[in-house]
Amino acid sequence: MMKVIILAAGRGTRLGYHTKEIPKGLVDVNGKSIIERQIELFKKNGITEIVIVRGYKREKFCWNDVTFIDNEDFANNNQLASLVLAQNMVSGNVLILFGDLLFEQTILDQILASNSDISIAVDLNWKERYDENRNNQFPALAEIENDKITRISENKSLVRKKSSGEFFGIMKLSSKGSKILTDVIEKTKHHKGKFHDSYSFAMGKIPDIIEEVIDLGFTVKPILVSGKWFEVDTILDLEKAKTIFQ
């Protein structure tokens, strides 16, 4: 059985008035919220064990068949703090994903087909999506060599090899992979000072813990996906997402 953990504690300040009264993951895209679309897709594929880490405006999440974990200090932390709160749920086969991510069935098919212990969804066409003039946040780029991720970082100044793709927010774990990740979290969650690309563990993002896993010598495999996906960070993103996902 596959379990899903959705990290959805953040407000999404760059969405402006859209998140004044609701959290980012509940923003409407053509009649359905982002997370509603995620849940529908998972259930359609027989994945019914769903965990959501919520924070900002948490009372707005109201599904009866979902397990909720509350990140009380969401305003002062980031994705890794939410993941620590859900640490006990990371067991068996697990998908960990962002709560602001839209994706279609073909993307999910490609991810579920991976039989690696630790794998992340990567899009090689990142240059077509990234527009420096729009002041987009630079993507988390995963460098790939011999079918392994050798480094992942949002640091724009790094010199990267040609074989790099964008990690857009979905990680797949086997039972063994879940054990590796929880062990790494346990060893690093009290880390003091800078943590990879972030200035602390609590403010860390998923790419930071992936980089830690790699640095400790574990294998992280890329899932090279093609198809429609979109991470909704800004008002402009939301408008574009509405043209892609009907």
Explain what the structure shows:
- This protein is α/β, with parallel strands linked by helices and 246 residues long.
- The chain has a single domain (2-244), classed as Spore Coat Polysaccharide Biosynthesis Protein SpsA, Chain A (Alpha-Beta Complex).
- The chain has 7 helices and 13 strands.
- Strands 1, 4, 5, 6, 8, 9, 10, 11 and 12 form a 9-stranded mixed beta sheet that branches.
- Strand 2 and strand 3 (32-33) form a beta hairpin.
CATH topology: Spore Coat Polysaccharide Biosynthesis Protein SpsA, Chain A
> SSE order, as H and E?
EEEHEEHEEHEHEEEHHEEH
Whole-number mean pLDDT: 95
Find the count of extended strands (DSSP E, 2+ residues): 13
Please tally the helical runs, counting DSSP H or I stretches of 4 or more residues.
Answer: 7
Report the major sheet. Answer: 9 strands, mixed
Keywords: Nucleotidyltransferase, Transferase
InterPro entries: GlmU-like (IPR050065), MobA-like_NTP_Trfase (IPR025877), Nucleotide-diphossugar_trans (IPR029044)
Organism: marine metagenome
GO molecular function, one term: nucleotidyltransferase activity
Please render the helix and strand layout as text:
Layout: E1 2-8, E2 28-29, E3 32-33, H1 34-44, E4 49-54, E5 67-70, H2 79-85, E6 93-98, E7 101-103, H3 105-112, E8 118-123, H4 126-129, E9 140-145, E10 148-153, E11 164-173, H5 175-188, H6 206-215, E12 221-224, E13 229-231, H7 235-244
Parallel strand pairs: 1-4, 1-6, 4-5, 8-12
Antiparallel strand pairs: 2-3, 6-11, 7-13, 8-11, 9-10, 9-11
Organism: marine metagenome
InterPro entries: GlmU-like, MobA-like_NTP_Trfase, Nucleotide-diphossugar_trans
GO molecular function, one term: nucleotidyltransferase activity
